[in-house]
Write a structure and sequence with these properties.
There is one protein chain. By secondary structure, this protein is α+β, with helices and mostly antiparallel strands. 25% of the residues lie in helices and 22% in strands. The chain contains ten helices and 16 strands. The chain has helices at residues 5-11, 22-34, 54-61, 65-75, 78-89, 91-112, 133-143, 218-224, 281-290, 392-398; strands at 19-21, 175-181, 187-197, 200-213, 234-237, 243-247, 263-267, 270-273, 301-302, 315-317, 322-326, 330-341, 349-357, 375-378, 388-390, 408-411. The strands form four sheets. A nine-stranded mixed beta sheet has the order 2-13-4-3-12-11-7-8-9, sandwiched between helices. β11 (322-326) and β12 (330-341) form a beta hairpin. The radius of gyration is 30 Å and the shape is extended.
């Protein structure tokens, strides 16, 4: 499938940075904030220069007067401020600038929007021959600007699109997924999770965004991911091994209660499995790679379990997509977008924290077409197709089939894991 320029721009992740040693970053940032034997403390989070050390504040005043004047002149923006104030205070010039901007934006939107949509009302501009001399002087001055990235061009149409599903957020407030409290020397690691699009496997779409402590593990990140695959119902089989039904709730005594927690995380070519068994996901993937031709094998190595690997022990690249595999063939990709020290206004406890979850796209009931379906009916000849998606009220209205046909009622994921806080 060939991607359009807009789709290619949306699917692009990166470019990656150089390797960042998380523990070294935390140590250097803490040393900068708290100071050391060689350097005085530097208030990283100060909102004013008053809190800076005295030698830093006096560095400028200790310069010669000529040097101070040169720096002030170089940093001065009075010429720009005066020009802007002259335009804003002159109604004729401000009107020209406003109409020119609206006309440019209109042309860009016409280029970006499909031809079948209703066009916006076009903004008209005065003929250059009828312009006032002040307006003409301003127009020529703006056209002579050497900074070519300043004016809007039609190339901006590639970056204009209507809102899409991953632009929305189901999280109204910051959601605390865990109960871990931040230590004094903890840093915050910001993670963005992506999923493949069902209609285009080469296109990644943002699924969720999370904030973790550097003292937390890859297992904490894995369990914080909202994914419908974690809610797949358990199959009920008869003595012959045939599926006779499904159950959604699992008891503590159920031997398969933790099956959905198994998976692996791949960071910089190292596979971190769940560690539940000796033959976990990481080992199974390496065994699969061994069965492939040598030319098609990827260079991967097995590491410790994800629950034993703290984020502070890793060296990662910012904006580099890393891989998560679980539930058989369910894939996710995640990038580390930001690593920073914890600000005093950041939450103290409740990590991992979820800041964004893309609303899931649920299939509607095919009977009433009004509410999302909650069941998938398999083998019911009354419905005309199998499987058939139906909501709870419509299925209760139809009732169970009266004949002895083998009808399976498969419950669909309720989108609770990762969305709804766990009950204490």
């Amino acid at each position: 499938m060939n991607l359009t320029p807009g789709q290619a721009h949306e699917a692009y992740v990166g470019p990656p940075s150089e390797l960042v040693d998380v523990s070294a970053f935390v140590e250097s940032g803490t040393e900068l904030h708290e100071g050391s034997d060689e350097q005085e403390p530097l208030p990283v989070f100060s909102q004013s220069g008053v809190e800076l050390p005295a030698d830093v504040r006096e560095a400028f005043t200790s310069l010669a007067q000529d040097e101070q004047d040169r720096i002030k002149a170089e940093c001065c923006v009075d010429d720009l401020r005066i020009s802007l104030e002259d335009i804003v205070q002159n109604p004729r010039l401000m009107g020209h600038v406003t109409r020119t901007h609206e006309a440019t934006v209109h042309a860009i939107y016409e280029t970006a929007e499909p031809s079948g949509r209703k066009k916006r009302k076009r903004t008209t501009l005065a003929d250059p021959a009828d312009e006032h001399q002040d307006v003409t002087a301003l127009r020529l001055k703006l056209e002579a600007t050497k900074l070519k990235c300043w004016p809007l061009t039609l190339h901006a149409a590639s970056f204009i699109r209507p809102p899409r599903q991953h632009d929305h957020n189901t999280v109204i407030n910051v959601k605390k997924v865990g109960a871990s409290a931040a230590a004094e020397r903890d840093a915050l690691v910001f993670v963005t999770v992506y999923n493949r699009q069902a209609w285009g496997q080469r296109i990644l779409s943002r699924s969720s965004q999370h904030v973790l402590l550097s003292s937390q593990t890859l297992g904490d990140l894995y369990r914080a991911l909202p994914c419908p695959s974690k809610e797949l119902p358990e199959e009920i089989r008869d003595d012959a091994g045939l599926v006779t039904g499904y159950k959604t709730s699992r008891d503590d005594d159920d031997m398969a209660v933790d099956v959905m927690d198994r998976g692996l995380v791949c960071v910089e070519g190292i596979l971190y499995g769940d560690g539940e068994t000796e033959n976990d996901y990481a080992r199974k993937l390496l065994d699969l790679l061994e069965s492939l031709p040598e030319d098609n094998r990827q260079s991967l190595t097995e590491g410790p379990s994800m629950d034993s690997v703290k984020l502070s022990s890793l060296s990662v690249r910012l904006h580099e997509p890393y891989w998560i595999l679980h539930a058989g063939s369910c894939e996710h990709f995640f990038t580390v977008t930001t690593i920073r020290l914890r600000h005093p206004t950041d939450p103290v406890a409740g990590y991992p924290i979820t800041t964004q979850i893309t609303p899931p796209l649920s299939d509607f009931c095919r009977v009433c077409t009004k509410v999302p379906a909650v069941y998938s009916i398999v083998g019911d000849i009354r419905l005309g197709e199998s499987p058939y998606l139906i909501c709870g009220p419509c299925w209760r209205w139809m009732g169970e089939p009266k004949d002895d046909s083998d009808v399976l009622v498969v419950p669909l994921p309720q989108h609770r894991a990762g969305w709804v806080p766990e009950e204490s």
